[in-house]
Structures are given as structure tokens and as C-alpha cells.
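Can't paste images in this forum, so I'm doing it all in text. The chain is below; anyone willing to post the predicted C-alpha cells underneath?
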Amino acid sequence: MKLAKLFGTALVALSLSAPALAQQAAGGQPDQVAQLAQMVGLSEDQQEEIRGILDEMEGEIGTLREEARALQQQMQSEIKADYDEDSIREHGEDLGDVTGEIAALSTLMQAKVDSVFTQEQRDELDKKMQQMRQQMQQQRQMQQGQ
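Text version of the structure:
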């Protein structure tokens, strides 16, 4: 379960930066899949399969994120003296449905990508993520000490 959380964290970060992936690739900077490949030693076939999964899911998740933003804006527009409680509640329920679907798709994406890794690669990812967390924790401690 701990590995799943670590992997999930890495994948969520990867999926949240999906729009930036295309920009990075176009700008000549290394993309996230290539960086992941270097971290855990992905084969070309594994990289291609992961890119396919991300491409497949990215469009649908992106569309839902836009829908969620629109619903949030609609809810914000309801903050006024003559508010409509039914409208606020309806938009809130719709937003809950959309964010729930985003969470489900993100989890499915993570599971699909996880199925591409070998156990050795999962172990290596776990090790690297632990190192990254320790580095981040050390940086936070140093910033708090200043």
C-alpha cells in the first residue's frame, strides 16, 4: 500500500503536469516519461506504452478539469445578496460528480501505468520517491530554521 501511495504521488504529479509535457517536449526539455525511464530503467516499449496511457487519459481528464473550473466559476458567481441556494447546491453536486470522476480516472491511469512496471522497477521507484521525500523534508526544515 505504501508503494501504491508513493507511485500515486508520482503519477498525480505526472498527470497534473500533462499540459506542460507537450510544451517541454517541444522546447527540447526532457519529458516526464523520459525522466521516469532514467529513474527506473524503462525500456522503449514500456515508455511507449506509458505515453499511450497518458495520451489516452489526458484528454478526458483535461476536459473534466475544464468542466470543474466552469462549475467553480458558476458557484462563485452565486455569491451575492440575492443568492439562489438551489442553484448553488446543484452546482456543488455537479462539481462533486466531476471531481469524483477525475479522481477515478486518475486512479485508473495510475493503475494502468503501474501494470507496465516490473517489480524491480517498482522497488526502484519506491526507493527514489523515498529519497525525494527526505530531500524535501530536509529543505523544509532548513527553511524553517532560517
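The mean pLDDT is 84. Residues 83-116 form one domain.
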